[in-house]
């Protein structure tokens, strides 16, 4: 029989374009069941829980909830706190005090780990609690999942960006370096390959954090492409690293900021792109070298979303509630590809997801280590959704010259 | 009576999202008139003319032309060459050799100047030639024009970006600096103000190249906002300069690249944003400070376009051909606002536009010099087009605390 009590939803980690679809899915579904007496939202993730900062989403209008669902970024805001056991104990105390019996945490692998520990706390004192981790991350780095909600939309933004860059660089030529988010997994950077429509379109080179980055090989690659096309468009993961595992940005620049997790800040700065551009200028003697770091635009730009991603993010929220209510189970929701293209959602043990990272499999990376394979293109295409505008070139014939060569 | 001969179209300067609408407008309209015997397109602007690199656009399919019209960036590619008198003479020689009688140059104020000199060359030898400058620039800096084709779409991209940034920064807090294109005119940066929906939305501060930028005042502004909201979102023009007219990026950084016009490269590098972020971190002791430089995305991203901008860019191309054909006149097309919101297109002497720069008028800038006025919001709103998605926040009530404060 279903537990009776309140529902609590929290969002963790970086925002995505569709994370609020999942929120709406959970809220709307949980409001259908009498046993789910209230639906609360924690403000700023786990911080909001320990501080008892809750919104009563039972009193949110459905209309506004649908508007919020279409709004990117975390409507409940987020946190970068990664709770330890003590913190998880505090979380549990609050859940118990508010008679919360269903805890849905929308997040990545760190959030899954929090769900795991909170579930253990409840078990210790025999407090009946349904705990469900619902996936989201633009990095697409959760194990067991074919892909994660949020990835398709961020990938679509990256594709739209590189489509434009192809057109822009072609007009004036030169070298262009676009730096894409992704500390450990290169899925988002790899998405740029979809921008190649015409044979000489970029990105001509794609560098991922899965492989060692060698500056010398990079320069050889760039020169080869530039000599051939008079231009070279490059997609680089912010997380590319050298043979010792050191982020390349730290080997090229000093005085970088360290974030709360002890990692070098890779986003919110143009350091990596600027440093690589400088190498290309100085070492290859190419004068027009530009770099853009796509930064926060990739995960929160308003107006670029994959409809497939939206739908899946909504459904996985609904399914989370349905499984917790009807099946009385804990775990982590996962997306599995069942056809071309169809998916289903399954529940796995949260410990199978927690604190683990999926990276690009070998079959998605070309053997030169500077581009993707056709297997990857097949993998990603449906995730980008429908209605993606495709650029077109003029096809008119050349006019014979009258003065030159006479 | 209309001249009989060929039509030549070229595109100059930086690309926009709708410049190919203007191209399509000229091509489709010119193909209606028997006296316009062929319609050529010059590849890489004036470079393509002197090298006789022409496409025969009479043989472009209408369907593909419509696809190209929807594609951002210059389909005929571009050039950064600013022709001197000798170069304009060479251009004229080629026009004459190909019996070109209509020359349409889509570009900014530099392109207008080229049109002016080419017209003079033709007049010198009594060669009958219709020369028309058709405006485009994301900078919106052409005099006499209410606004320019390309501006509305780039502005829409900037708005969509800051809407997302508002949501993203709100979730985790901190200071965010977004660097927007605009060397002399701040219109594009100012557009960010439209992203403010809720009272505490950013951008809280907007800095334009029209006013002197004082680092000390900037830091005071940032601190005031940050103390109030726990966050501060800032839009900065890449062209902000100090009292002596020196770009701020050069006062904060050394070893910057000089472009073909002798100007410091402001785009394609994160230098300005990173330098300002460093100042905020070091001087104000705020730990989470991020900056993004929107770079080339603002002018070529595929999938963000204003329908108003599209329509006007198309119409102004058509009108250019109609005026040249039916009225037998030379000049520069301009856009005038005639109602709220309606426009008409007029022809002015190209010398009235050439090599002149419009900047933000005083009535569009607030008296503190760190934001825009309501007059500017009224001015820009229609240019952004329809269907702009507006973010929504949750409106649910707070839940009373049970543990804290008891």
From TrEMBL, chains A, B:
GO terms for molecular function: diphosphate-fructose-6-phosphate 1-phosphotransferase activity. Its EC number is 2.7.1.90. The record marks 110 as: Important for catalytic activity and substrate specificity. It holds the Pfam family PFK. The record marks 136 as: Important for catalytic activity. Substrate binds at residues 137-139, 181-183, 238, 296-299. Non-allosteric. The active site is at residue 139. It catalyses: beta-D-fructose 6-phosphate + diphosphate = beta-D-fructose 1,6-bisphosphate + phosphate + H(+). Its cofactor is Mg(2+). It is found in: Cytoplasm. PANTHER family: ATP-DEPENDENT 6-PHOSPHOFRUCTOKINASE 1 (PTHR45770). Belongs to the phosphofructokinase type A (PFKA) family. PPi-dependent PFK group II subfamily. Clade 'B2' sub-subfamily. Catalyzes the phosphorylation of D-fructose 6-phosphate, the first committing step of glycolysis. Uses inorganic phosphate (PPi) as phosphoryl donor instead of ATP like common ATP-dependent phosphofructokinases (ATP-PFKs), which renders the reaction reversible, and can thus function both in glycolysis and gluconeogenesis. Consistently, PPi-PFK can replace the enzymes of both the forward (ATP-PFK) and reverse (fructose-bisphosphatase (FBPase)) reactions. This is Pyrophosphate--fructose 6-phosphate 1-phosphotransferase. It comes from Sporomusa silvacetica DSM 10669. The gene is pfp_2.
């Amino acid at each position: 029989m279903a537990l009776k009590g309140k529902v609590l939803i929290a969002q963790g980690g970086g925002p995505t374009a569709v994370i609020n679809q999942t929120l709406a899915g959970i809220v709307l579904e949980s409001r259908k069941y009498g046993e789910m007496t209230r639906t609360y939202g924690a403000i700023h993730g786990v911080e909001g829980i320990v501080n008892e900062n809750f919104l009563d989403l039972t009193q949110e209008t459905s209309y506004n909830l649908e508007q919020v669902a279409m709004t990117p970024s975390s409507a409940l805001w987020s946190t970068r706190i990664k709770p330890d056991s003590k913190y998880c104990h505090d979380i549990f105390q609050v859940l118990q005090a508010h008679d919360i019996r269903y805890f849905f945490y929308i997040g990545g692998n760190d959030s899954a780990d929090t769900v795991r520990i909170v579930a253990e706390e409840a078990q210790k004192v025999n407090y009946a609690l349904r705990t469900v981790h619902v996936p989201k991350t633009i990095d697409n780095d959760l194990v067991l999942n074919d892909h994660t909600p949020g990835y398709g939309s961020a990938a679509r933004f990256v594709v739209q960006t590189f489509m434009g860059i192809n057109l822009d660089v072609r007009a004036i030529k030169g070298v262009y370096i676009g730096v894409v988010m992704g500390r450990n997994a290169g899925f988002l950077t790899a998405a740029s390959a979809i921008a190649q429509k015409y044979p000489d379109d970029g990105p001509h080179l794609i560098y991922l954090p899965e492989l060692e980055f060698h500056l010398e090989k990079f320069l050889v690659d760039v020169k080869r492409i530039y000599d051939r096309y008079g231009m070279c468009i490059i997609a680089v993961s912010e997380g590319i690293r050298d043979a010792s595992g050191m982020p390349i940005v730290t080997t090229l620049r000093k005085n970088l900021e360290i974030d709360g997790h002890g990692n070098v800040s890779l986003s919110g700065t143009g350091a990596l792109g600027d440093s690589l551009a400088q190498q290309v200028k100085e070492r290859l003697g190419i004068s027009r070298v530009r770099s853009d770091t796509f930064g926060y635009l990739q995960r929160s730009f308003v107006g670029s979303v994959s409809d497939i991603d939206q739908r899946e993010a909504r459904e996985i929220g609904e399914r989370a509630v349905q499984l917790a209510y009807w099946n009385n189970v804990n775990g982590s929701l996962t997306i599995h590809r069942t056809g071309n293209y169809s998916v289903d959602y399954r529940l796995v043990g949260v410990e199978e997801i927690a604190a683990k990272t999926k990276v690009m499999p070998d079959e998605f990376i070309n053997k030169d280590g500077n581009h993707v394979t056709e297997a990857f293109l097949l993998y990603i295409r449906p995730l980008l959704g429908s209605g993606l505008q495709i650029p077109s070139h003029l096809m008119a014939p050349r006019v014979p010259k009258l003065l030159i060569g006479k």
